Amino acid sequence: MSPILVAKNISKTYDEGKIRTQVLTGLDLSIHPGERIAIVGTSGSGKSTLLHILGGLDTPSNGEVWLHGQCLNQMDETQRGQMRNEHLGFVYQFHHLLAEFTAVENVAMPLLMRPKVSTKQARDQAVALLEKVGLGHRLEHRPGELSGGERQRVAIARALVTRPSLILADEPTGNLDYDNAQSVFGLLTELQETLQTALLMVTHDRNLAALADRQLLLRNGQWAEY
Fold first, then answer.
1. Is the pLDDT of residue 50 over 80?
2. Fewest CB atoms within 10 Å of the CB: 8, 97, 167, 200?
3. Are 45 and 220 in contact (CB under 8 A)?
């Protein structure tokens, strides 16, 4: 089975004046359909930078990222945005919901960016997914009216509403207490399995990482023995 995403020799450096900081060095990675991968590392190890590059939100200094056989590096920002909307879902530690929109409006938004999807179709799919995550009774509530766990459930529904082939999750439970973290992660993996979506998760929590099919340790911008 062909991989969804292939990263080849990814490096990233930042230059500030005469100071050059090497964040990532020569990383390779392949992600296959339905696979669940955890990238573990301490703060500052380059985990989030790597995730942003893999998701086309940032570009590598060297190397290539191929998503469904197309090289993200060779695309302009509009083309990368279309690839993200079509194939990727994002879940962050902080939900990044739009405060002025309701839960159902937040979830429907990625679908409304597609020209062939009507407002009714987007809303119907958003409602169905919010019901699956246990928020059918909170459809018209805005983020400020929801608990932390509820906001993260909305964020998961938003990431999955387009039925992406890959979810990129950056510390998806890092802002929650233990019980909410367990509940939200269980929900994320349950939906991931149901939709046969691959999951790449960045975390510092090795207990969470142990639930993945594969664990990778990032140390000082390079893969290390786990």
1. yes
2. 8
3. yes
